[in-house]
Amino acid sequence: MNSILTADLLGLDKIINSDPVAITFFIGYMAMFASAVFFFVERSSVSDKWKTSLLVSGLITGIAAVHYYYMRDFYLLTGQSPTAFRYVDWTLTVPLMCVEFYLLTKPFGAKRSTLTKLIIASLLMLVAGYIGETSGIEENIFWGVLSTVGYLYIVYEVFFGDVAKLSRNSNSPALANAMFLLKIFITLGWSIYPIGYMVLPGNLLSGAFEVSSIDLFYNLADAINKIGFGLVIYSVAISESNKNKKAALV
Predict the structure, then answer these.
(1) What does pTM read for this prediction?
(2) Whole-angstrom Cα distance, residue 243 to residue 30?
(3) Which of 47, 67, 88 is nearest to 247 (CA)?
(4) For the chain, what is the mean pLDDT?
(5) Are 157 and 113 in contact (CB under 8 A)?
């Protein structure tokens, strides 16, 4: 009880004193919690084959909300970056975002092998990144390069691989628009993570900006990427469900 009260008082003090990192932890927590509720409720608005997609969107934002609750308290009590908490969150949510690519293209013929490759690439990216951040300056460039290989494979898959081919052959304007937006998330939204890693001491972009600002960028990127990802999935699910309803009435 005392620790919770202390965290609340510290949090109020940091907000009053306009600590942008503390504020974004609060905003991220509430935004992702609200998004999870929205996706779970909206499952009833889409056809059966899209319900799992919205369930996964709700899980992604719900898991992130729980972790942000604990990351917020950790930051308020220590003033340090919650690196371990953040990687636990990413290890659960990033593979689920890869699952979303599979579910998005499954109605158009996606194979489980594509899902397997995406998950392996995401785990490589995350595990190598965590080792690099915690193993010391001497090793972080090597592990950073290895992590980037996993990220670049996901980019390849979305732009040129099976996911891209299924999108082009689907004849679905909703899916085409969704894939266009998801490509933006992957290339611009996700790029903040390797950039944040590379500004760490001893890395390729060391000194480019203050390391203390990394949590600010991570918090904003997490909220935009995870909520935005889910909203793109939701838009496709609603569009395809409405199209099927109209076809059934004809």
Answers:
(1) 0.85
(2) 33
(3) 47
(4) 83
(5) no
